[in-house]
Q: What sequence folds into this?
């Protein structure tokens, strides 16, 4: 009889330990799932900000979407590194083309992969712009664009690397 009671007590404790372990593992999965949902919401917020500031050409907003050490890569020129350099490049462009206007900007993100504090977006974009009021609109249909995002210390997301075609 004593042996049976001891066996039942050991089985009960083992079951309790397994149950606690399984529950904590489930909570960890739930926490990771909640963090993933929060990351996707933050990324979606950045995407919306990008659309708004691109359409409005708000000088401050066009810089605020970048991480401090962000890198903008464009064809035929060296990469622009850092928020300050991106702001200076934007100002120079505005001075050269004061009537520049974005008529349409519609990025279509087809895939987002998150790895820790980094995310990669893949997608396409339809855009149209006019260099001046007298110029005809130029349409752009960009396929296969890739943007690298970086989670900031406050949990928000910013552009870390964007290549322009």
A:
């Amino acid at each position: 009889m004593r042996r049976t009671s001891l066996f039942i007590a050991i089985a009960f404790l083992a079951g309790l330990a397994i149950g606690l372990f399984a529950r904590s593992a489930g909570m960890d999965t739930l926490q990771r799932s909640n963090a993933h949902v929060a990351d996707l919401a933050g990324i979606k917020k950045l995407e919306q900000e990008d659309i708004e500031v691109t359409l409005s050409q708000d000088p401050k907003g066009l810089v605020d979407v970048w991480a401090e050490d962000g890198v903008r890569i464009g064809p035929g020129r060296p990469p622009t590194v850092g928020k300050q350099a991106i702001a200076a490049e934007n100002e120079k462009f505005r001075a050269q083309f004061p009537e520049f206007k974005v008529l349409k900007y519609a990025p279509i993100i087809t895939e987002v992969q998150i790895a820790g504090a980094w995310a990669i977006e893949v997608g396409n974009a339809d855009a149209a712009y006019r260099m001046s009021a007298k110029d005809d609109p130029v349409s752009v249909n960009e396929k296969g664009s890739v943007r690298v995002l970086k989670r900031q210390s406050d949990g928000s997301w910013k552009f870390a690397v964007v290549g322009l075609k």
Observations:
- The longest strand covers residues 101-115.
- The CA atoms of residues 53 and 82 lie 18 Å apart.
- The radius of gyration is 25 Å.
